[in-house]
């Protein structure tokens, strides 16, 4: 690889349909964020309106919505040139780079995606805290129901707007429009995604940024503030993959080690062994084809430098000013893979997690982000290196997004080291020469200065080659003081208002190991409980359940109780997987993360000693030390009384219970947290948001299989009333008697000329257009060619 200018790599940042819709800024990630509804002076807009249509599109196709035609794009005689197929006379014509900006390229392959107003990912919503968002969603799909969940929004007073189809409301049927209306709260980097089946992984997702207006007046506001949505990508629909996974067809995953041009069919002799992460535990069920950044990626090795016919090289490029502190809002929207993010030559400081500010003192080299999570990072753009490969002023750097894959299975000793799947994007300093590819190399982590990695799904990394690492658990970060002032850690004042529930996210079952919580595979209730609060809509669970129940697993929370959930990941069925657990309706405090026992190489050895299981699947569990059940034991202020240096002093243990590594003073707030294999996470929140809230593993295949449950917060009488006009979805059946009556009906015999009938028919003709709200008309975005 020489240093010749790489002219084919022209990466434009002007994105699809930026100017097609006047009411919004579009998916514009390269400017400092401005809310859609601008405020003037101190005026904060009370409402922002969005108008969405959900549609199918193909990747790699250039659409002309005015002419209702699509033109596939492809390479042909020159690996640096894309062409499109002109269907009127079946010829191919070269495409300009700016034309290509209107194409959803993903990794260069062709497949169906689900889009919002023709875009993937959907537009970024930016709103001020406290603003009312009105988002009209028209389902223009042929056969799938739709619902949109606003991940990070707590939906106070509006639990039926939470968008979990079959829990919070009914699926939006094809052709229907549902107008979501809720308050943009709390501030932070959030996102939205489909929450029925697997449409989220087929493209239905985007960023939702809530800005605290107070922040705008402080130096917390950045000149450059961009979103970076990460996802793993496959050449097939997620529902196809999900049904294949159930039959263990992943062994013959069709696109292993192949380019997108030979995808789509099972190939004899291609066998995928589920890959392993550092602790020896499983990662994704299905091999990932590529990793996308803001919808762009490649199946090839982008750092390799050679252009090939099957390599898409239109990667995402972030153009940033020099000598500034910029903010990148990272969202992992992946189906299944945790992703490790780094920027060559740069370190990063984490500002917030799931939208909640932390004391930004941790300078990191790598950030591991699990699906569902968000991290805001600050990056100083002051790195210049003069090397043969990186001439001065050549401000191009690789952003690397890697899977955690380290081993594959044939080698049981975990010695078969594999290259992780990698996605690439480019950080480009303003004023750098055009059309360059970065020449930067990955980070070096010498023993004298080991690399810091935030949020490992295990305790520690063993050195690799000459590189050394330190894992920082998120429980070691501390919430910003002002955030704790607004959201103090709820403290129980008596045993009566403290509810502690152990929830085991794991695989269980006597026939086959399936995704479950406490041994329960989730089955959606007959009707959305939120819409039928007084009816028992659940499929009842057999209790005790020892690993095989298939039911609408629900735990009741008493209103205003302090809720402590102990999320565990234990029992037979190992090797397991770390599960990113998302709790709807709340941001919770992370009090403690407990890890299992590891061997000298930090491979999983056995489950934690802190928790005792009552059955082999660990469908019910408790603390080993029963004094930990005492609500006072978790009073974090005791941590201050007994310093770390006094850890071995047990003299006053009973009088002053103390649990190692608990932070109940200023723990971080999150809404999604990773539960390590063999370990646990203690989270706490106050049950002050009545509603039915979904709790689930955010890995798509696990949630689809049953790793989900419902928290019923408050009694039905304590729930906010549901608007009577909200659409309902009920089972339907006619009795024999009712059907007999149906058959008895006969059309009325009309006597022609009867004045009475004329009058009746006139009255029966309503003016239809009065009844059709304007929203019922599907919106088609007009692209300009
Ligand atoms: C949505 O767009 C359609 C067509 O552009 C328009 O008629 C309708 O009023 C819009 N609805 C809202 C809520 O903005
Ligand atoms: C085919 O149609 C396109 C678009 O109308 C036109 O630009 C091109 O010249 C045509 N090619 C031939 C060979 O007719
Ligand atoms: C955000 O808006 C809510 C009301 O919706 C308000 O209670 C809160 O104080 C606002 N600011 C912050 C920083 O939470
Ligand atoms: C990409 O290619 C370079 C150069 O051959 C190699 O060093 C690197 O390991 C490759 N990366 C991946 C993820 O395959
Ligand atoms: C927690 O500890 C603090 C400091 O010792 C004390 O003031 C407070 O009363 C304790 N709370 C409970 C519920 O025990
Ligand atoms: C409970 O804790 C004790 C002391 O640490 C330990 O010896 C024992 O193995 C633990 N029990 C379980 C079931 O882990
Ligand atoms: C506590 O005891 C353990 C085992 O005896 C020892 O390794 C450790 O250094 C002690 N810690 C402190 C802070 O004294
Ligand atoms: C134990 O508690 C007593 C009474 O609060 C106190 O005087 C003593 O110093 C404590 N001992 C230790 C080792 O903390
Ligand atoms: Cu999971």
From TrEMBL:
Signal peptide interval: 1-25
Keywords: Copper, Metal-binding, Oxidoreductase, Signal
Residue ranges of every copy of the Plastocyanin-like domain listed in the record: 106-213, 287-410, 554-597, 659-715
Oxidoreductase found in the keyword field: yes
GO CC terms of this entry: plasma membrane
InterPro entries: Cu-oxidase-like_N (IPR011707), Cu-oxidase_2nd (IPR001117), Cu-oxidase_C (IPR011706), Cu-oxidase_fam (IPR045087), Cu_oxidase_CS (IPR033138), Cu_oxidase_Cu_BS (IPR002355), Cupredoxin (IPR008972)
Biological process annotations from GO: iron ion transport
Gene3D superfamilies xref list: Cupredoxins - blue copper proteins
A Gene Ontology molecular function term of the record: copper ion binding
Family the UniProt entry places it in: Belongs to the multicopper oxidase family.
Protein name per its UniProtKB record: L-ascorbate oxidase
Species, as recorded: Lingula anatina (Brachiopod)
Lineage of source species: Eukaryota, Metazoa, Spiralia, Lophotrochozoa, Brachiopoda
Gene name in the database record: LOC106151084
